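Q: Please design a sequence for this.
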């Protein structure tokens, strides 16, 4: 096996035995990357100097020769002294890297894409990417190569989707294509493939909605009409009859259940919980939530505390957003769970008690109630002692939702996500495996590790497609907009598209105010005007975020100062760092030194994070930048 090289990510090399080569410093990596980009051609020393330094120092030529000598020792450690190198060679005025054609991941990738290989080969080739090409190198030649290879990667993503469609696996193509168009909304071919995949997956209405989104975006942002392929596809879909009616298995089984199980049987209530859980994860979250309290109240009327506990604790629907969609209902569930806990007989199974505790932890999220954290920890201890995998996953969901008492806790949440993914994958807990990937998406985004976050978004989408979890796409769609924003690309159109995906999803706790808050955070980060009245964001449009937004948007400084004094501290949730940044900026504006100091103290534990990016949805930029402004104002 020859020496191997990787540029689809940071520049790396592997020895003939597959061991990573120590390339020493960043200049060494830059020299190696530049020679690899030359594809075996000679690069003169003078060109290397110009490509490494904008303003070359004295002795730059000698430095390049030193870097090359060190690279030669690292790449050919067994070469006898005073023998000519065979890999990194000197030719004429410069150097060339004589790597084997299959030894460089980018070269293999280009060859694979040009050959339009089978699906398995395409998926393998896309798997060679470890991050942006030539990551960490910002010289002009590296930026040009990065852009060229990224365009080729996007083409490969679309070739893979075409291969899935050709193989009759349209549903498998949808999640990745959905994320693809959100991240790259100007690619008409991507929109065509997504609409085609939805159509072939018997989702005609969704396919037409995608084509409408594409048309609106192209017209509004670029001032152009969709191309002939998109128009032709829309016509074809409109002329196609709807999908055939599914077999009536559900109706048959439901009728048999009605005939067999007495309406007064306790089993009816537990079956109802199973039905509500399936309804919630299958996309009917609002409908399931509407019946949950009624089911609990019916169980309480029967006077059997253990049955009531099973009915309450059986609704183990994963939750990834630390604010309830219905706070009043959540409070009612917590109260019922507390009553059931107090009434449970001593002989009741520990698992029943632990599910009540996990329910309290999940449903008290975002309230600051100290019972929530204690309940989560106790449920986790019981689940570990019992070795109950499903119970442990539910308990870890509660633990995750209780890790927001201060800023900067993304690493703690990441540890929960790691265990959730591993535990759920080993024991077939699909819903909690998806939750684990979403938790890791959030926590890796918080620290700017978007390469890892991308992997978790893709994994969540694949699992969602396989197991029928349509709500997952709302979160990964928002993540795609966040990634654009964090990378400095125009993101407003992607945010608006993501907001469309939330409407009617039954998640008002996530949806309310999120779009205008995302846009405000972007403008705050880039010091752009903060008046968002043109977006239709009246007071009602800000949802729960209005108290922290109002002091920034009021024109009069005295009115802004009064609004800031009325604003409470941001609540413990996924956007608290972003809200503290709003508080800090407003405090600087009005000269409120006490609030400046509080914002600085609150944000300090998150100094290494991107403000708000832990939500997986929005960001106000590096927390460190906000801390510097606050420190300067103190």
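A: Design:
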């Amino acid at each position: 096996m020859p020496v191997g090289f990787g540029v689809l990510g940071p520049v790396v090399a592997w020895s003939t035995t597959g061991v990573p080569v120590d390339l020493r410093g960043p200049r060494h990596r830059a020299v190696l990357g530049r020679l690899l980009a030359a594809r075996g051609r000679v690069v003169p020393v003078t060109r290397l100097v110009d490509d490494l330094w904008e303003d070359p120092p004295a002795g730059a030529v000698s430095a390049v020769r030193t870097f090359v000598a060190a690279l030669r020792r690292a790449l050919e450690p067994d070469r006898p002294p005073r023998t000519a190198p065979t890999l990194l060679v000197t030719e004429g005025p410069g150097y060339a890297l004589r790597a084997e054609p299959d030894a460089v991941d980018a070269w293999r990738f280009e060859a694979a894409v040009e050959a339009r290989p089978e699906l398995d080969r395409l998926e393998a080739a896309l798997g060679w990417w470890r991050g942006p090409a030539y990551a960490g190198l910002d010289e002009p030649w590296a930026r040009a190569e990065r852009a060229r290879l990224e365009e080729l990667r996007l083409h490969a993503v679309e070739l893979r989707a075409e291969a899935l469609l050709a193989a009759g696996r349209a549903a498998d193509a949808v999640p990745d294509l959905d994320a693809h168009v959100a991240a790259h909304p100007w690619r008409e071919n991507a929109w065509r493939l997504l609409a085609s995949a939805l159509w072939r997956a018997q989702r005609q209405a969704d396919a037409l909605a995608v084509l409408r989104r594409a048309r609106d975006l192209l017209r509004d942002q670029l001032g152009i009409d969709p191309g002939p392929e998109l128009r032709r596809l829309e016509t074809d879909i409109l002329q196609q009859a709807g999908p055939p009616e599914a077999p009536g298995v559900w109706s048959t089984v439901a009728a048999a259940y009605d005939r067999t199980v007495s309406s007064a049987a306790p089993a009816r209530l537990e079956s109802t919980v199973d039905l509500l859980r399936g309804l919630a994860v299958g996309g009917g979250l609002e409908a399931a939530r509407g019946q949950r309290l009624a089911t609990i109240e019916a169980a309480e009327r029967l006077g059997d505390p253990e049955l009531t506990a099973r009915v309450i604790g059986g609704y183990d629907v994963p939750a990834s957003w630390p604010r309830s969609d219905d706070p009043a209902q959540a409070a009612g569930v917590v109260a019922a769970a507390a009553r059931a806990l107090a009434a449970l007989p001593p002989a009741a199974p520990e698992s029943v008690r632990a599910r009540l505790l996990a329910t309290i932890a999940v449903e008290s999220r975002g309230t600051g109630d100290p019972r929530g954290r204690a309940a989560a920890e106790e449920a986790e201890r019981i689940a570990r002692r019992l070795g109950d995998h499903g119970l442990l996953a539910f308990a870890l969901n509660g633990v995750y939702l209780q890790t927001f008492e201060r800023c900067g806790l993304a690493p703690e949440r990441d540890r929960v996500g790691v265990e959730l993914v591993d535990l759920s994958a080993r024991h077939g807990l699909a819903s909690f495996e998806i939750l684990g990937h979403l938790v890791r998406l959030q926590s890796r985004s918080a620290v700017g590790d978007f390469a890892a976050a991308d992997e978790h978004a893709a994994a969540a989408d694949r699992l969602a497609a396989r197991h029928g979890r349509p709500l997952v796409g709302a979160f990964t769609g928002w993540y795609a907009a966040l990634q654009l924003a964090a990378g400095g690309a125009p993101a407003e159109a992607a945010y608006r598209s993501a907001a469309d995906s939330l409407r009617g999803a039954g998640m008002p706790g996530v949806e309310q105010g999120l779009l205008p808050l995302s846009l405000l955070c972007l403008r705050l980060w880039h010091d752009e005007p903060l008046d968002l009245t043109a977006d239709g964001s009246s007071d009602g449009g800000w949802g729960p975020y209005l108290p922290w937004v109002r002091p920034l948007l009021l024109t009069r400084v005295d009115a802004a100062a009064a609004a800031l004094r009325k604003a409470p501290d941001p609540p413990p949730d996924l956007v608290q760092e972003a809200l503290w940044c709003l508080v800090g900026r407003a405090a600087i504006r009005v000269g409120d030194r006490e609030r400046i100091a509080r914002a600085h103290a609150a944000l300090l534990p998150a100094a290494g994070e991107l403000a708000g990016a832990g939500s997986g949805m929005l960001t106000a930029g590096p927390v460190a930048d906000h801390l510097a402004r606050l420190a300067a104002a103190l």
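Q: Thanks. Anything notable?
A: The chain has four domains: 4-123, 168-237, 263-495, 514-633. The two ends are 60 Å apart (CA to CA).
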